[in-house]
Amino acid sequence: MEGEVKIGVYICNCGTNIAGTVDVKEVAKLAGGLPSVVIAKDYMYMCSDPGQNMIKEDIKQLGLNRIVVASCSPMLHEHTFRQAVQDAGLNPYLFEMANIREHCSWITEDPKLATEKAKALVSAAVRRVYYQEPLEVREVPVTPSILVVGGGIAGIQAALEVANAGHKAYLVERESSIGGHMAQFDKTFPTLDCASCIFTPLLSTVGQHPNIELMTYSEVEEISGYIGNFQAKIRKKARYVDEDKCNGCLVCVEKCPWKAVSEFDEGLSQRKAIYTPFAQAVPNVPVIDTEHCVYFLKGTCRACERFCDLKAIDFEQPDKEVEVAVGAIIVATGYDAFDPSAITNYGYGRYDNVFTALQFERMCNASGPTGGKIVLKDGSEPKNIAIIHCVGSRDKNYHEYCSRVCCMYSLKYSHLIKEKIENAEVYQFYIDMRCFGKGYEEFYERLSNEEVKFIRGKASEVTDRARTEEEQGKLVVVAEDSLMSALIRVPVDMVILSTALEARSDAAAVARLFNISRSADGFFLERHPKLDPVATTTDGIFIVGCAQGPKDIPDTVAQASAAAARVLAMISQGKVEIEAATAVIDEELCSGCKICNLLCPYSAITFDEEKKVSRVNEVLCKACGVCVAACPSAAITGKHFTTEQIMAEIEGVLA
Amino acid sequence: MAKLKVALYWAASCGGCEIAQLAIGDKLLKLAEAADIVFWPVAIDAKYKDVEAMPDKSIDACLFNGAIRNSEQEHMAKMLREKSKIMIAYGSCAYEGCIPGLANLFNRQMIFERVYIETQSTDNKNNILPQTSCQVPEGELTLPEFYDTVKTLRQTVDVDYVIPGCPPEEKTTWLALEALIEGKLPPKGTVISHNAKAVCDDCPLKRDVKKIKKIYRNFNIIPEPEICLLEQGLLCQGIATRGGCGAPCPQANMPCTGCYGPVEGVIDQGAHFLSALASVIDSNDPEEIQRIIDDIPDPVGSFYRYSLPDSLLRGAIIR
Amino acid sequence: MSFEPKIIAFLCNWCSYRGADLAGTSRMKCAPNVRPIRVMCSGRVEPLLILKAFEAGADGVLILGCHPGDCHYLEGNYKTLRRVDLLKKMLSQLGIEDERLRLEWVSASEGERFVSITDKMTEQVRKLGPFPRRNGGNNG
Q1: Which of A31, A108, A174, A251 is most enclosed, with most CB atoms within 10 A?
Q2: Taking the model in full, what pTM does it have?
Q3: Which subunits have 3 or more CB–CB pairs within 8 Å of chain C?
Q4: What pLDDT sits at residue A550?
Q5: Domain range holding B25?
Q6: Cβ-defined contact of B311 to C51 (cutoff 8 Å)
Q7: Which CATH number fits domain C7-139: 3.40.50, 3.10.20, 3.30.1450, 1.10.101?
Q8: Which residue intervals of A281-421 are DSSP H helices?
Q9: B142 shares a domain with B156
Q10: What is the C-alpha to C-alpha distance for residues A497 and A502, in angstroms, rounded to an integer?
């Protein structure tokens, strides 16, 4: 610490905001008498230019090396005054603010008591500032590239935004093709445009983009580093097809004699053991499913290899580890569809003609398992279809939240049914119709005119036990029609369950991998629900799309673009500022007890096995002070909130 | 070179410190070579008046063990301070109050009532309590005044050095005595020990993940050997206790109870252990946290076993 | 003369400090007995600081943090919860009334809650009277 401490104290009148209640002269008089205080005065508006200049002048004239301003909340002007003292050549951390407006003059009625409190707050700040030390704000350069995890519409949009701005994007997708759930969709609500017509051009743009490095059938295994400077380890799983040689003729697929259930068609069709999930897959390179390939199971076959002119089949292909350096990461890992077999009374898995929403989506699709025909298991056409809403959503037993998209896709299905089946009856069993988006309410109105039957009530059961002639051979949906206050039974041929969107089953592991947290519903947690909806508490890592919570395509795309904008802003700045008031461990005092290591929410504390001491990575530290408070040896100092400083403040405020 | 003059005294203590002083074994001979012991009530027949008669600062060093419980001890502490060039708080009682200091959970009245009236083996029909002065046919009898609050030596007189421990390990005692004999004492105020870091630094047990789901008392479990005892749910205070002892207790599968006092620079050993322990309780559920905490029957006795008088609050509030 | 307690309130920078600011900007009126001290996170508030406050003359200590699940630093408030629970158990052994130490959650939008908590705390501690320090003296 440099020489003698000289403190200047400035009491702001804030017009009458402070001076109307607090006797500022008296406070200044008290401050002037405190140890190490060289000058104490009050002024009309400290934040004004003349006010700031007064501080700057005094720093120069009187050689002040600590400044206290007693005025409004530091949330308002801490930055202003720090800048002012810095302009005068003083380290900004040698400044302390006493909040005598929001915390004093504005909330205290009695002027005498307000003045007493103001004095206490000023004494506290003066005692505290005595122990404050200069700190260095550091900057780190930003690697101008991005890692996007998840190749659904969210990840694709984010990668394209960054790539189109001229920066490298690594797009990692776990499946063998990008596309995600959107690739499964037939039409999109409320405009009913064909999903593949709007989506497949995007897929091929991504596949061909010079700035996008696509890594499909790959998973991120490890993330290290920090904002601006992340390293990601990515495992490219063996496809057993050489991507460089394959020209996508798919003869191998044709010749493969072995079959498995198609995941893409939600179990409604079969695919080969070597396959691409769908016709427009990007990259259009098949992958061998080793669980169903007989060569991998029994060692014979190799039909695909025989028929491949390009010699692209490689049964010996190993997994590959790739490491990339990126400045930021966008996590767009999407959602899982709720598995309704858990709700046994809806009979999914028990009755042939109870389908999930995604199965129905595939059924409607012209390139789907039925060529776009809506059919029952026996191939016949249903006449009456029930759509049950909120399956797994808005249900305390499963998910309390609303999945936001089910009402709308259910309406969409009603329309598709009416379009494809003449005179079909569609029953919607809903709790509330939530049609909140642009054009959504109008779509609802339109469907109401298409004579869809809306029944307000949650279905309690789907059963095949008939009570009447009419119910014979049908599925009966039992529900309470809450508008009529009556229990009703509706016999139908087919039941569609509007299943919830839920967090990925491996969301906890992904959250750990990227050091982000999850909200109670299991989805990833944004830094601020309103003002920072795509950032996370780990700087440089963003979340977009359904990984953050259920949402529709327009919202997903908007989020993806927003996150991309944040990344581009970082890249164009070229550098990011790092918190200065971090925690630091004194190796002379650390006994290596390991109390602190797991407490850090940012994994900033590592253990040096050689020296047997813990160490804080100051770039990752966000200065919460949890480790400082926990250290049994007081070996950790929380800079700018040291125990000494806080204790001085406690003594001052009670003096 | 003239021989050093050394005094040893005991105040509120158990006698263990004297045993510890003798435990340096043949090094006693080296001490005897370098120093004359001028006052040592436990071993030498010298009277208070002999000390009183010594000139100020005529003793080179006084090793004072025991806490300050009554006026006699305070008187002797002050007298020995005046007579000695160097005042050393020897052992945990003098340093931070130790077991006698746990009496600060009560006050004089409560202690007297318990000891002289309530206990079943006491026969005191007239409820007579100790008096500082009492008239008998032969004249006045006096007793030292029993204080309300146990104090440490540092709260009583200026102390130059501290030798920690309950009792100090032989090697710690000799570290200080050797420095004294050789005239190589560290700066005033030093707590003399082989290690300024916590006991964990001495301890060879393996440390891995500190997450505590259940707390055990010593008789509840047989701990796994070679694994950090705290990680096994035992209240091992090694994390918050000055090392230098060599961690003999954890190595014998007994949790450290904290006798070497706080780590260098730490105010309030108990508060630091409490904070560290609570921080690693592995639950965010208030009820579960409470259940885990319920397994600590005596927080004060556990966290401040040696340091209650030296803690920020010094003891319990009695009304 | 009636006893006016002094209460130290540790406020976290992200939620409760701003909640207290909001009480001010909304011109609510609140007992002047509460003296705020800003920390970045309630998780920084270690038992040492609470004991220090009592030792230095506080009659009550209030710790305000973000609501569970809303902590700016993910789980700092839970760590405080654990510490305060254990500290309270110890303080009761030391004869210190439960009402003198309180941990509450106040969000940035809860100016009113800030006022009601501080007023209630002031009232409770006023009833308890001054914190009786043990001065360690001969008859202390």
Answers
A1: A31
A2: 0.75
A3: A, B
A4: 97
A5: 4-97+152-182
A6: yes
A7: 3.40.50
A8: 294-298, 303-307, 357-364, 406-420
A9: no
A10: 15
